[in-house]
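Q: For a teaching session next week I want to show students how multiple molecules come together into a single three-dimensional assembly. I've collected the sequence lines for a complex. Could you give me the predicted structure tokens for the whole thing so I can convert them for display?
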Amino acid sequence: MLSDDETTIKELKGVIKKFRDERNWQKYHTPKNLAESISIEAAELLENFQWKNEEEINELLNDSKYKDEIKEELADVFNYCLALSIALDIDLSDALLEKVKINSKKYPVEKTKGKYKKYSKL
Amino acid sequence: MLSDDETTIKELKGVIKKFRDERNWQKYHTPKNLAESISIEAAELLENFQWKNEEEINELLNDSKYKDEIKEELADVFNYCLALSIALDIDLSDALLEKVKINSKKYPVEKTKGKYKKYSKL
Amino acid sequence: MLSDDETTIKELKGVIKKFRDERNWQKYHTPKNLAESISIEAAELLENFQWKNEEEINELLNDSKYKDEIKEELADVFNYCLALSIALDIDLSDALLEKVKINSKKYPVEKTKGKYKKYSKL
Amino acid sequence: MLSDDETTIKELKGVIKKFRDERNWQKYHTPKNLAESISIEAAELLENFQWKNEEEINELLNDSKYKDEIKEELADVFNYCLALSIALDIDLSDALLEKVKINSKKYPVEKTKGKYKKYSKL
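A: Of course. Below is the structure for the complete assembly, covering every listed component.
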């Protein structure tokens, strides 16, 4: 059993790589195929919230079966994110931190506190 | 600077949570909004491969600017995966490992080695 | 100028086919590429609603510039739906009617009136 | 039975509107919900091409069952495009023609004939 408290991205990449290599599936793991798969799994995740408003979702979340379905679909998206980062030799931790730095400049705290402005720009 | 070799999911969750909380953006981080955002960012990632075949992509990957764009979009998807796991208190490492176990039974090595069968079932 | 009142799908297919053929873009219009493009444009459409709740959206819809952006993204999705139906020689009108028949059986009026049941099945 | 040769968008909108209104589903047909549904169905369409290269897809297309699945998913995307155009009172034919005009200027025939340039701009 793994836990977020102690598990590194490297370890998770190892799990995904092992699964792939045992099946000789490297040939399927092209960047384009993996990006497609991330989109497909993202939509399956979104399907859990389709037609429902926030209150209905919050109520459903008391049902562990519902939450488990979401957890499983989120794992699928994460799985292919890791696979793409393996295929392209991307350091995910570094990529995330770099992007957070960019976003911090794009959305400075003093201008965005409490409101997200996109349409009617900052 | 962070690296996959040493960075735990917990640490990355901490980065995302800090960014969100400094801006008081918790109210935007509903499960439905975050699932939507994962889909939107996944499509932006896919856009890097649109209309291109594998050879063209492989050639473009020699260009660090192209690879950086992919890295940035992948970071966006991962960012919202972490945010959703925070919002729903999901342990991502555990979720991933559980899903890999399910997939290992669904796609046993001896039956799937070298070929992925979906349409014409196993 | 065209209007939904009088324009047939055949005419719209003609517009799309002409645009494609003038540029010799048939080679790009493979089923996989077009399905990818539908997903990408669908996400750009969805981006107009990202982070916003229904009230905010309804207010923004009073702004013709906002509505025009949505109209443009919807046109992109529709564009590639037509292109895929051309590439695969699919009659879209027939496809739609057939699907509505399937859905009519799946969601009979007497059981679904006023409520859409998916998670907690019918 | 309907055919693209003769069917207007108005008629197809009528079919979708009737299906919706018989079930009192207007309340679910908010712009945001419909845009989500377009994305979800677009991904289900894309799933038919997941992990497959163009040759494999072309071979599968000889199988009418495979083509019917694609036809059905394409109908789903089109269905929600029509529903969104109804909800927002958008003339789809006009929207498409306007977008083709914009694209014609963006991608002039003489500069784009035979090649689609996006990454390495025109």
